[in-house]
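Hey, resending since the last one bounced:
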Amino acid sequence: MAALSGATEQSINGPSSLPSPPEAQHGVQDLSDDDNIDNAAPEDLGNNASTKKKKKRKPKKKKSAGSGTTKQSNPPRVPVSLIFLNNQYPPGEEVEYRNENSFRTTSEEKRHLDRMNNDFLEEYRHGAEVHRQVRQWAQKNIKPGQSLTEIAEGIEDGVRALTGHQGLEEGDNIKGGMGFPTGLSLNHCAAHYTPNAGNKIVLQKEDVMKVDFGVHLNGRIVDSAFTMTFDPVYDNLLAAVKDATNAGVKEAGIDVRMSDIGAAIQEAMESYEVAIGGESFPVKCIRNLNGHSIVQYSIHGSKSVPIVRGGDQTKMEEGETFAIETFGSTGKGYVRDDMETSHYAKKADVVNVPLRVSSARTLLNSINKNFGTLPFCRRYLDRLGHEKYLLGLNNLVSSGIVEAYPPLCDVKGSYTAQFEHTILLRPNLKEVISRGDDY
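The structure tokens again:
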């Protein structure tokens, strides 16, 4: 989820951490470990007829540690807890700290602190594995001609099935499921667009689509995004943004200043240009969009990670979790609110506010029970059976209880791209928990 520069962010204490993905698997059940018995060879008539050859058993294949016998279906509907037993989910990309923090790799004290965070690691790695399996299915199956609603619901159905939380029973979505609504922002729109009910937009071959969604278990949100195109003319745009995100991930670490991360991102991003329609465009960082810290049940913590040079001397600290996300544009490199709002989240620090609109009170009660401070979209309210709720929702926004996140767009005719990873600054190493074979 993108953070606008200067926007107020919410903060709740709590760490996090993530895994890296296994290969995409297909089919539903692996029965290859059943014992197979060879047919007995025919007896030699010249020998004792009562003597039979012994049945030979084929040796059982060894299973990898933590791996069950179930494989993922297509589309993905098998909970990953049935694929990885005993909560043994694969780790993300683990990176040793550098320079003055290199001692952390071998420090017994830091290793001990890290072992105390096992519950966080399990929850983050669980969520990251769900994100990888769903997004890799999406990358293979999203095609021009599909509606944005079909694409969004396909991703969200997968996340809910793989986490084991459909979110229809009261409180179930707070235990696990969608940590951030599926953003499907097209072309000049950089972030925070998902189809509302009745949306008729269909994906076209010439579109540049940012796919940004979050997965959570127990409020540990894995926030990761990628960009899809169907025309190689945009390859350099995507390469610039992916390179910039990786530069930010590499630079990030304990005691690193935000200004240094922004400088590394901008240097990588703006070394690219892209030729579209016979015209060459420099790839610009969208300077008023940022990465952000993540805390339990709140996708925006109190810290922002800039993607351009600046003077922010704030440092990253041990135990924090960050979304490192970058946005590149062929336009002005600056976004403004535009189009119909779909994304919302209840503010974490709200005190009791008197509500005179009865529909607002009813809706707030439902938001508290089903989302808490997790982001949601209007389709999720439709799914829970709410009707004619816009008056109440707007009243919650105007009362300062719920924050609205309208789509963020550069100038029309421009193209924007996004890549994002979630990283955990563990005491003894940095883990890029959302890293996969795809990006």
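Residues 7-55, 59-65 have pLDDT under 50 and may be disordered.

Sorry for the duplicate.
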